[in-house]
Amino acid sequence: MMEEERSFPQRKNFMSKNNVTFRLDSEKRAALDALATSMERNLSYIINEAISLYLEIHQWQLKEIHQGIAEAEAGDFATDAEVEAMFEKLTNVS
Fold first, then answer.
1. Are 43 and 32 in contact (CB under 8 A)?
2. pTM of the entire structure?
3. What is the Cα–Cα distance from 2 to 44, expressed in whole angstroms?
4. CA pair distance 88, 94, nearest whole angstrom
5. CA nearest 48: which of 9, 20, 84?
6. Residue 89 CA: distances (Å) to CA of 6, 78, 85
């Protein structure tokens, strides 16, 4: 096969990697090490997954807060009936 005909798989979601150094208490480090061992992953993978989840949760939360503020500033509030229906749904455990 000629050189230009070769097809190499493209690495998806390639991002440059950066080193970050931070202090971590020994209990958290031990818990991360144990998790990495039990998952048969390296510590870098575990920490990256943890940070990804942290960012996902907090970015979602901030988006929802900003959306709620915009709705409130626009006067878009739930009616009493909507609030009562939601309260009933959340407290009526079947």
1. yes
2. 0.65
3. 38
4. 11
5. 20
6. 59, 15, 6
